[in-house]
Amino acid sequence: MDQNEAFISAVQTATLERFETTHKAPSNIALVKYWGKYASQIPANPSISFTLSEAHTSSRLLFEKASKAEVRVLYQGEPKHEFEPKVVQFLERIRLYCPFLNEYKITIDTSNTFPHSSGIASSASGMAALAMGIVTLEQKLGGIAKEAMAQKASFLARLGSGSAARSIEGPIVSWGEHHELEQSSDLYATKFERPHEIFKTYQDTILIVHKGAKKVSSTVGHDLMNNHPYKDARFEQAQTHMSSLVSALKKGNVESFIRIVESEALSLHAMMMTSNPYFVLMEPQTLEVIKKIWEYREMTETPVCFTLDAGANVHLLYPEAEKEKVHAFIEDELKSYCEDGFFIHDHCGEGAV
Ligand code: DP6
Question: Which among 14, 92, 113, 125 has the fewest CB atoms less than 10 Å away?
Answer without folding.
Answer: 92
